[in-house]
């Protein structure tokens, strides 16, 4: 319109990582190891990077805020003291927590967007307020005999308007703004164990199952269309992540050392395979940086591995490469299973 001035959005400035350097611990939260084992089940950065959401067995869910001094510093001295992380919000979820995820449009400057979903043993799906810790609403899935059924996995659609939930015999899709039991259903052959939505292709969802298969489906206006089925893992699928452009899907499975990259432009055959230590049935999270460059995974050997997957050729071990040429880097964090590990891109941090 006449008189209006349009300004171009600033270009995204990605962090320049050098994973050859020694990792520096910035902050720490820990729980006493009681007889009932209060172990950490995972952690997830909020989409705006200001908060960290964690699930603790027997300890509910906790929201931690990033230490204030890390917002303004360009570098961190090794002499910086380790800051204790105290929960800003604690939600005493009862029972075992199966899965949880932040609302994709979460921004701390808009409290209405600050929320997350969680699903647990023998309970409905809860939407929690990240400012107050209050329960906003619930979504309830029922089986064929009208019994309340727990979702084994869940995710938001890219726009946050829908909630995809994986069950034993189907995937249920709830409308975010309409809590309750009303939903659409997509039947599946085996129990869903992991589900992720593509950010680049709205409505495209990858459904991982306990029988080592991944099914890609497209959903629009309650209508589902099967796209393809991927099968190469030895165990049930536990973790998946789409690349930002939607052209790749990375998958990991239980008791399977292989991380598989699928080229979704030519589905059916792995693009390449990476290896990690995974001799457990438990979920070990993988994550991809938002510039599509760094793939990160923990391992049952207590090590974190980082691959540069942006290279045109097969990513291989290269411990002596300099910055921007690191294909794979490894550092020891704890002599135990690294279940959850995610990249926070702008301040150079990994949790």
Automatic annotation (TrEMBL):
<dbReference type="InterPro" id="IPR015943">
    <property type="entry name" value="WD40/YVTN_repeat-like_dom_sf"/>
</dbReference>
<comment type="similarity">
    <text>Belongs to the TCAB1 family.</text>
</comment>
<dbReference type="InterPro" id="IPR036322">
    <property type="entry name" value="WD40_repeat_dom_sf"/>
</dbReference>
<dbReference type="Pfam" id="PF00400">
    <property type="entry name" value="WD40"/>
</dbReference>
<keyword id="KW-0853">WD repeat</keyword>
<dbReference type="InterPro" id="IPR051150">
    <property type="entry name" value="SWT21/TCAB1_mRNA_Telomere"/>
</dbReference>
<dbReference type="GO" id="GO:0003723">
    <property type="term" value="F:RNA binding"/>
</dbReference>
<feature type="repeat" description="WD">
    <location>
        <begin position="285"/>
        <end position="317"/>
    </location>
</feature>
<dbReference type="GO" id="GO:0015030">
    <property type="term" value="C:Cajal body"/>
</dbReference>
<dbReference type="GO" id="GO:0030576">
    <property type="term" value="P:Cajal body organization"/>
</dbReference>
<keyword id="KW-0677">Repeat</keyword>
<dbReference type="InterPro" id="IPR001680">
    <property type="entry name" value="WD40_rpt"/>
</dbReference>
<protein>
    <recommendedName>
        <fullName>WD repeat-containing protein 79</fullName>
    </recommendedName>
</protein>
<dbReference type="InterPro" id="IPR019775">
    <property type="entry name" value="WD40_repeat_CS"/>
</dbReference>
């Amino acid at each position: 319109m006449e008189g209006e001035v349009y300004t171009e959005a600033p270009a995204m400035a990605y962090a320049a990582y050098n994973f050859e350097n020694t990792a520096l611990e910035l902050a720490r939260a820990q729980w006493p190891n009681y007889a009932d084992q209060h172990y950490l089940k995972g952690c997830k950065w909020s989409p705006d990077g200001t908060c960290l959401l964690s699930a603790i067995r027997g300890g509910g869910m906790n929201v931690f805020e990033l230490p204030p001094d890390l917002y303004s510093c360009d570098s961190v001295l090794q002499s910086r003291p380790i800051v204790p992380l105290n929960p800003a919000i604690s939600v005493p979820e009862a029972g075992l927590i199966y899965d949880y995820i932040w609302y994709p449009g979460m921004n701390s400057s808009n409290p209405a967007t600050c929320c997350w979903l969680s699903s647990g043993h023998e309970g409905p799906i809860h939407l929690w307020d990240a400012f107050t810790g209050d329960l906003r609403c619930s979504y309830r899935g029922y089986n064929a005999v009208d019994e309340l059924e727990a979702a084994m996995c869940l995710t938001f659609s890219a726009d946050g308007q829908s909630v995809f939930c994986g069950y034993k015999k189907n995937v249920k899709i709830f409308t975010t703004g309409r809590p309750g039991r009303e939903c659409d259903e997509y039947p599946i052959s085996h129990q869903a164990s992991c589900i992720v939505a593509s950010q680049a292709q709205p409505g495209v969802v990858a459904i991982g199952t306990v029988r080592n298969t991944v099914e890609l489906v497209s959903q629009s206006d309650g209508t589902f269309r099967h796209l393809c089925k991927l099968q190469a893992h030895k165990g049930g699928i536990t973790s998946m992540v789409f690349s930002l452009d939607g052209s790749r899907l990375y998958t990991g499975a239980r008791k399977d050392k292989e991380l598989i990259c699928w080229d979704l432009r030519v589905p059916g055959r792995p693009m390449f395979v990476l290896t990690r230590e995974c001799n457990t049935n438990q979920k070990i999270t993988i994550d991809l940086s938002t510039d599509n460059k760094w793939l990160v995974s923990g391992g049952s050997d207590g090590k974190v591995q980082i691959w540069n997957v942006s290279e045109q050729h097969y990513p291989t071990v290269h411990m002596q490469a300099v910055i921007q040429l690191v294909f794979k880097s490894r550092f020891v964090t704890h002599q135990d299973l690294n279940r959850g590990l995610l990249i926070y891109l702008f301040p150079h941090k990994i949790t």
